[in-house]
Amino acid sequence: MNHHLDPKKTGLAVGTLVGGWHLLWALLVAVGWAQGFINFILWAHMVSLPVAINTFDPSVAAVLVIVTGAFGYAAGFIFALMCNYLCRNTTPVPAPDVSAVL
User: Fold this and answer.
1) Of 34, 46, 68, 99, whose CA is between 20 and 30 Å from 74?
2) CA atoms within a 13 Å half-sphere pointing along the CA-CB vector of 69
3) pLDDT tens digits in sequence order for the chain, 102 residues long
4) Which domain holds residue 13?
5) Do 28 and 37 contact (CB within 8 A), yes or no?
6) Rounded CA gap, 49 and 66, in Å?
7) pTM for the complete prediction?
8) What three-state secondary structure class fits 5?
């Protein structure tokens, strides 16, 4: 069975997932829900850290989404290349025919 990942499609999928996740975070900051969300996450993990969410800045949000999306694309692309290399089909070498010798 041939399992082949298209590096471009895999990169796009991972980049979209990672960039989209950070877009959701930027939207939480924009509507003012990020502080409550991060407080809940820290509480649920039994962690006490003084974390303060800054005010929303559209240019910073754009940089966050673009950079994380690009890194996600690169990670997915490299993952697909490595997976294709490690899972490549190799033709087994047939055993020698010893019946002619006997």
Assistant:
1) 34
2) 13
3) 567 899 999 999 999 999 999 999 999 999 999 999 999 999 999 999 999 999 999 999 999 999 999 999 999 999 999 999 988 876 666 777 777 666
4) 7-86
5) yes
6) 28
7) 0.78
8) coil
Q: Is the separation of the CB atoms in 34 and 53 below 8 Å? A: yes
Encoding tokens for residue 26? 């930027």
Could you tell me the sign of the dihedral formed by the alpha carbons of 85, 18, 42, 45, in that order? negative
Q: Residue 81 is encoded by which pair of tokens?
A: 């290349």
Burial letters for 4-39: b for 16+ Cβ neighbours within 10 Å, e otherwise? ebebeebbbbbbeebbeebbebbebbeeeebeeebe
The answer to the question of residue 95 being in a domain is no
Considering its fold, how many domains does the chain have in total?
A: 1
Among 29, 80, 30, 77, residue whose Cα is nearest residue 53:
29
| Other beta carbons within 10 Å of 73 | 21
Residue 47 lies in a domain: yes
Q: Domain for residue 93, yes or no?
A: no
